[in-house]
Every structure is written in C-alpha cells, then in structure tokens.
C-alpha cells in the first residue's frame, strides 16, 4: 500500500469506527427496540427499549415510563444492557488507542513500532465492540420473531415487532468491524519512510561533493 493511501485508509477507518460508536451509544438509549401496534387503537404505538417503555400518540406526542426493576426485565433485555455497555466502553477505548497510532499524528513519530501496536490494539477493540453490539440486537430480534410466530398465542393477543433501534445497532456493529478492519489492514502495509541510515549516507555524499567542489582549482 502506497504511503499516500495509508493515511487515507486510516482516516476512513477511524471515521467509520467513530460513526459506529456513536450509533452504538444511540442504540443503547433508543426506546424503539420493540414496537407494538394495537388494532383496537391504531392511533397509539407502544415501544420498548432497554430502559423504558413508551406510547406514541398522534395527538399527545410520546409518553415514557422507566422500568422499575432490572431483575423484572426479560433475560434478553438484561443481557443486552450489559453487552451494550461493554460495546460503548470498548469503542471508546478503541478510539483512544487507535487515535494515538495514526500516522497523521506527530506524537511518537519516531516510535513506529509502538504506534503500530496502538493501532492494532485499537482495531481489535473495535472488532470486539462491533461484536458486542451485534449480539444483543440479534438476540432481541430472534426472540421477537419467535414470539411473533408463536402458534400457541391466540390471534387476538397483540404481538411485538422489530423496532428501529435494532437496525441502528446492526449498522453500528458493521461500521465498527469495518473500521477496525481498515485500521488493521494499514499495519500490514509497507512503510516508505526513509531510514536513519539513508539519511546518514545522503548526508555523507553531500559533504563529499561539497569538499570536491572546494578543492577544485
């Protein structure tokens, strides 16, 4: 990979990872993990997230109520809370480590090995952040689909549907994994930075040429 394209790929990777981290934080607090449309009252839409349940009314806006107990939540929502916290934390650490490993950052410019390690560690953190973001939304989506098609439930019982927050979470995980992959790909690229030996040889050649010009009559 040419030196010109390497900073561009690194910048693309860090921006994708930043976008994924922001979307992951947004997914954590959005109340639209599940949606429920009542046939008896089509003017109301019930939504459920990790922290609260809301009812959306066309005339009165949105009214939300926080969950009273963590232990009273379904298992998929309890585990999803923990995993999304891990995803947000790992993503933040990945931004810090990979940020100091970028070539465009002049700090530690002469310690390329250390910068490579920071970049590699940051990319791996983005991978783990993306996986821990995809896992909970996929689990909630799987359980919602199972409950929706459960034949044991009477047809008159309202059924939850997939919410918008699940799709935001999938997009967040994809951006985090892709951003971490781009950052790690730049580590394997060849560096075109001149070595100190090259500088020394060039300097000696310039001194010899300068002496030759002075000794000529």
Keywords:
217 residues; alpha+beta; Butyryl-CoA Dehydrogenase, subunit A, domain 3; five-stranded antiparallel beta sheet; 11% strand; elongated; cell junction; Claudin; tight junction; transmembrane; transmembrane helix
> What percent of the residues sit in helical stretches (DSSP H or I)?
55-70%
* Measured distance between first and last alpha carbons: 49 Å
CATH 2nd-level architecture of the domain at 1-32 and 74-192: Up-down Bundle
CATH class of the domain at 1-32 and 74-192: Mainly Alpha
Give, in order, the helices and strands: HEEEEHHEHH
Q: Can you list the strand order of the major beta sheet?
A: 4-3-2-1-5
Spatial extent as radius of gyration: 27 Å
Query: What's the rounded overall pLDDT mean?
Result: 81
Largest sheet: 5 strands, antiparallel
User: Structural class of the helices, strands and pairings?
Assistant: alpha+beta
Shape: elongated
Number of E-type strands: 5
Give the uncertain stretches in residue-range form. 190-205
Counting copies of identical and different chains, the oligomeric state is single chain
- As for the CATH topology of the domain at 1-32 and 74-192, it is Butyryl-CoA Dehydrogenase, subunit A, domain 3
In summary, what is this structure?
This protein is α+β, with helices and mostly antiparallel strands and 217 residues long. 61% of the residues lie in helices and 11% in strands. Claudins function as major constituents of the tight junction complexes that regulate the permeability of epithelia.
């Amino acid at each position: 990979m040419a030196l010109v394209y390497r900073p561009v790929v690194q910048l693309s990777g860090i921006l994708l990872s930043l976008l994924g981290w922001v979307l992951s934080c947004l997914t954590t607090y959005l109340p639209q993990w599940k949606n429920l449309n009542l046939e008896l009252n089509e003017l109301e839409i019930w939504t459920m997230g990790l922290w609260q349940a809301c009812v959306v009314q066309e005339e009165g806006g949105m009214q939300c109520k926080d969950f009273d107990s963590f232990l009273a939540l379904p298992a998929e929502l309890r585990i999803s809370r923990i995993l999304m916290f891990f995803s947000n934390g790992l993503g933040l650490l990945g931004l810090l480590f990979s940020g100091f490993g970028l070539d465009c950052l002049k700090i530690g410019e002469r310690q390329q090995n250390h910068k490579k390690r920071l970049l590699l560690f940051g990319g791996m953190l983005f991978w783990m952040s993306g996986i821990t973001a995809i896992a909970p939304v996929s689990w909630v989506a799987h359980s919602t689909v199972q409950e929706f098609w459960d034949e044991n439930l009477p047809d008159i019982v309202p059924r939850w549907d997939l919410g918008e927050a699940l799709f935001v979470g999938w997009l967040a995980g994809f951006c985090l994994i892709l951003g971490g992959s781009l950052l790690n790909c730049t580590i394997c690229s060849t560096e075109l930075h001149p070595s100190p030996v090259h500088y020394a040889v060039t300097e000696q050649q310039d001194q010899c040429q300068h002496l030759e010009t002075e000794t000529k009559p």
